[in-house]
Design goal:
The strands form two sheets. Strands 3-2-1-4-5-6-9 form a seven-stranded parallel β-sheet, with helices on both faces. A two-stranded parallel ribbon has the order 7-8. It has seven helices and nine strands. Helix 3 links the parallel strand 5 and strand 6. By secondary structure, the chain is α/β, with parallel strands linked by helices. It is globular, with a radius of gyration of 16 Å. Helix 1 packs across helix 6.
Length: 223
């Protein structure tokens, strides 16, 4: 399988990239982002773009791929809806529409979040915008599209958050990780990455996948 990863330098993207490089069923990986990932590997290729809403210059590089793991995202904290929508909806749909046109047999996985509002009408700004993004992606002509909705993600094996205060919180709470892992809504970055690859390869019986299901999928992937 050949996989494209958008946002490989963020915590979720790091998780996806690590598991792709470790998985023998993934033969080739292409990262697309504003910065290159620090990893070097024989099956890893990277493309750095200043404007991620315009893939015209690399169309030939993003054609012929089996799956896309779309891990780009920002926290809505302190952001106005227009700005958050530009990054969360506009950027995502621009890239996805291009990929769908070039790769009709592609499986597209979008990492959304627990609590996303599929009705697009709730009070929470971020949940509405995420819901609108999910719904628009599900209408695109991919072979399959899946919306991942993780809750709390615990970074492991060197994966880190780019947001300093998030990483500080993860470091402080690390002794509690074994207890937190008993909760259905909590998964590790390793489990998230494994679930992405497994669904890319095997599919799933519904398009919206909640955190507890992601944990179950990762357990199947390890068997």
């Amino acid at each position: 399988m050949k996989i494209i990863i958008f946002g490989a330098t963020g915590m979720v993207g790091q998780s996806a990239l690590r598991e792709c490089l470790l998985n023998d069923e993934v033969q080739e990986v292409l990262t697309v982002g504003r910065k290159p990932a620090p990893q070097q590997h024989k099956k890893l290729k990277q493309r750095v773009l200043e404007n991620l809403t315009d893939l015209a210059g690399i169309k030939e590089k993003v054609t012929g791929w089996d799956a896309c793991l779309f891990c780009l995202g920002v926290s809505s904290a302190g952001m106005k809806e227009e700005e958050y929508r530009r990054i969360t909806y506009d950027l995502t749909l621009s890239a996805a529409e291009t990929l769908a046109g070039l790769n009709p047999q592609m499986t597209f996985i979008y990492v959304s979040g627990s609590g996303t509002d599929s009705s697009e009408s709730g009070r929470s700004m971020w949940a509405r915008v995420k819901g609108e993004t999910e719904n628009a992606l599900l209408r695109l002509p991919f072979k399959a599209a899946y919306m991942f909705r993780p809750g709390v993600i615990l970074p492991v094996y060197g994966v880190t958050s780019k947001t300093k205060w998030y990483q500080t919180l993860y470091d402080v709470m690390k002794p509690l990780n074994p207890m937190l892992m008993r909760l259905k809504s909590v998964i590790t970055s390793e489990q998230l990455g494994q679930a992405m690859i497994h669904v890319s390869l095997q599919g799933y019986d519904r398009p919206i996948i909640e955190s507890y299901e992601l944990k179950e999928i990762s357990m199947k992937a390890q068997q």
